[in-house]
Amino acid sequence: MANEEKQRYSAEELKEFEEIIRAKLDDTNAELKYLRESLNKKNDTGTDATSGNSKVMEDGADTAEKENLNQLAVRQQKFAKNLENALMRIKNGTYGICIDSGKLISKERLRLVPHTQHSIEAKLKQK
Q1: Domain range list for the chain
Q2: 22 in Cβ contact with 87 (< 8 Å)
Q3: Which among 3, 60, 78, 120 has the fewest CB atoms less than 10 Å away?
């Protein structure tokens, strides 16, 4: 029994992962809020028709910056959703189990990528 491979993480181990995930989720939500506020400010700036050609160049830069902020916000939103899903897996007892192999994902990997559902071996096979 002692050399049998572990099937699940203990409640104590899951608590550690939950704390890591909640901290990352707080950071992600704070960044998402900042990005949304920045996007709203960009949308609030009116166009001044009297400023001529330089305004056209500024508008182009403004549009590119808005697009970058939007892409960052979408990425952060996806990351937050992945973290929330990981919290659900902790609650339902499936956290840390590779969806490809059914084996436990290493603690080192989960500490670095706490929302992952793949062991490093499974991830490398995908590529």
Answers
A1: 10-44+54-95, 96-127
A2: yes
A3: 3
